[in-house]
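Troubleshooting: if your tokenizer reports a length mismatch, compare your output against this known-good record of 340 residues.
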Amino acid sequence: MSDLKWSFFQVWNQSLEQGKTPRELKVRNNIWATEIGGAFVDRYLKMKAVAPTNPPNPRSLRKFEAGNMMEWLAGMVLKRAGILQENQTWLSYQYPGLLEVTGKLEFFAGGQPNWLEANTAIQSLELPEFFNRATQAIVDHFSASYPNGLEQVILEIKSCSAYMFEYYEKYGASPQHVLQVFHYLKAKNMQEAHLIYISKDDLRMLEFGVFNPSLVEEVYHSDIGQMTRFLRKGTQPEKESLAVFDPLSGKFRTNWKVAYSNYLTMLYGFENQKAYDDEYQKKVAQWNRVLARVVKGDNMTPANLTVIDEIRNSFLNWDELVGIAREKGIKEEDDNNQEA
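Known-good structure output:
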């Protein structure tokens, strides 16, 4: 490599790691839509303009940019198909007496496009084969199925790893993402939005509907209410649990609200995410092995009983969790990795 006259990869990596300029730290009284459903303690510190001890590292920045590229690709398909109405629009909503919530709507699509013009525009762009094929398929499908045009809906596109894609496919969309999308519905007083996941590994896509009105509003309103009370009373919320039980899969998991905390060192004493993962991924894997043995009805060894006592110290409803795990059919060899 030392014999190279110039290096493309070095400039590429540096540009991705540099990322965009972070938001200026300042005290604020508004909640970002992307924060709803997240850790209250992190949100409180951010709103108080406390400097993070664990800002995004170079790998995280590259992952953000990879996600941005996938979302740009999907947006370009919508645009060239003639159904993108607007994007990157700031929307605000505020309940009486509670904090304002603001966020940037990603895509608003639908309407009555000129399919012939859309088709001509696609052909003239000399797009890569996949890009051209996907865009053309959208035009062909919608022009044949909806000759009178498409109802306008909000689209939120998220990219994710193949592991998380399969998790969403099996258990449903992320509650935090659903809350974010619901904010846009509430702000625009609309009834329907689509939350879309794209796997960065193989370009598979999932789509979930989010609706207004719906029971999501109870969670949305409660979250805003709790954050309002914390901020106005000046009371810092409690820290997150270092491990959680996932009722959907019936397994213990590391807590992403801890792993991705910008205050990981300040709040939990871990130098970085790797230090947290190294300790707690092993711990929850051990917990799940013992939980699976309990569900299976195996005889408990002294070591197993020690682990159960450890779990009981953090989860007082151990017997209830065993029942959920039994219902979900947890197995000893189940994978416990988690990645956003």
